[in-house]
Specification:
Elements: E1 2-6, H1 16-30, E2 34-38, E3 45-48, E4 51-57, H2 61-71, E5 75-78, H3 83-95, E6 100-102, H4 107-115, H5 119-131, E7 135-138, H6 141-149, E8 155-157, E9 182-186, H7 195-199, E10 206-210, H8 216-222, E11 227-230, H9 234-242, E12 246-249, H10 258-265, E13 270-272, H11 278-281, E14 288-290, H12 294-301, H13 306-314, H14 318-328
Parallel strand pairs: 1-2, 1-5, 5-6, 6-7, 7-8, 9-10, 9-12, 10-11, 12-13, 13-14
Antiparallel strand pairs: 3-4
Helix pairs in contact: 1-14, 4-5, 10-13
């Protein structure tokens, strides 16, 4: 099959969306499918406000039209709601081509948090964008239910996976040489990740933050006893993750959180709030603890069996994720 993927999120960005798309496209190519990946690196770009590492394509419509016309895809998937996503949606509607979309990010919450945009305005734009698709792929049943309640009509679940060969328990947890237990956070160091809830939690041992972002400059001097490792990728990320004891996921706005599966694959139980994302990923009392007090969740998670965490991660393969993606694509022509 000839598949066109249009995405505003792509390398060198480091996030769960890029991880998912990279893993899925690699597997689809290995299976013999032909892929056209349209991403911002092929265009002139500008930085997204508050997210300077995310760059959006400037006026991509003409080149995008040429790429899609020349490739003549059998199926089109629009992964994001950026400038490329909107241009691709408009092109498909004009051609009367069917397409699918996916919902990865809670833009309505971020718009309210950063720019005071009423959520109903943001949801109106997102609803119009996604309801034009034949199917909108969402990461969890709870996101599916939430979006249906807001008038989205075509949501189907497309779950995520984890590389359990790369992310696996460490033979010895001696990377940090700090007092144990080691409580880990991994992700973008930014306001929307609610990282300060983790940093202010009353916990013994050591807190480690893996990642970087706009809040790093202000947080590092205020928390001198926290280990800030900066961005880590690939095997280095897996090595840092496996050296911890509990993974703390303080976000209240993520739609999934692939990083939780990566932590479980390393044998780390997850401490999180009982909100969208964790409620679909964590098995309470088995692979993590969900509680409105993140410190209580973290301390109770210490008591869980790392083998159960690893076992859940082994159920979540990227092969299954790629198969679900493929099954939900629709032919370009009805």
């Amino acid at each position: 099959m000839r598949i066109a993927l249009i995405t505003d999120a792509w390398k060198p960005q480091i996030n769960g969306v890029v991880t998912t798309l990279e893993q899925v496209t690699t597997l689809l190519r290995q299976q013999g499918h032909e892929l056209l990946i349209v991403h911002p690196g092929q265009f002139r770009t500008f930085p997204l406000p508050r997210y300077p590492e995310i760059r959006l394509a400037i006026a991509p419509a003409r080149r995008l039209k040429q790429q899609l016309t020349d490739f003549a895809p059998d199926a089109i998937h629009i992964a994001t709601e950026g400038t490329l996503g909107f241009a691709a949606r408009r092109f498909c509607l004009r051609r009367r081509w069917r397409f699918t979309t996916s919902y990865h990010t809670q833009y309505a919450q971020y718009g309210r948090q950063y720019f005071r945009i009423p959520t109903r305005w943001s949801y109106a734009v997102l609803r119009r964008f996604h309801n034009a698709a034949t199917r909108m792929l969402v990461p969890t049943p709870s996101v599916q239910r939430e979006l249906r309640s807001r008038g989205f009509t075509n949501a189907v679940v497309w779950t995520r996976g984890v590389d359990t060969e790369r992310f696996r328990p460490a033979a010895e947890k001696n990377l940090y040489h700090r007092p144990r237990p080691i409580f880990l956070f991994c992700g973008r160091v930014a306001r929307e990740k609610n990282i300060e809830a983790f940093l202010h939690a009353d916990l013994p041992g050591t807190k480690v933050v893996i990642g970087d972002g706009p809040a790093m400059a202000s947080l590092r001097p205020r928390h001198p006893h926290v280990v800030f490792t900066g961005f880590q990728t690939g095997d280095d990320l897996a090595r840092h993750m496996a050296a911890g004891d509990v993974f703390v996921f303080p976000s209240r706005t993520d739609t999934f959180g692939v990083v939780m599966l990566e932590a479980m694959a390393c044998g780390l139980p997850v401490a999180a709030y009982p909100v969208t994302g964790p409620i679909d990923v964590v098995r309470p009392g088995v692979t993590g603890v969900l509680h409105e007090d993140i410190a209580i969740a973290a301390m109770q998670a210490l008591l869980l069996d790392p083998r159960d965490c690893r076992a859940q991660a082994l159920e979540c393969s990227w092969d299954r994720c790629a198969a679900m993606f493929l099954d939900n694509l629709v032919p370009r022509a009805a």
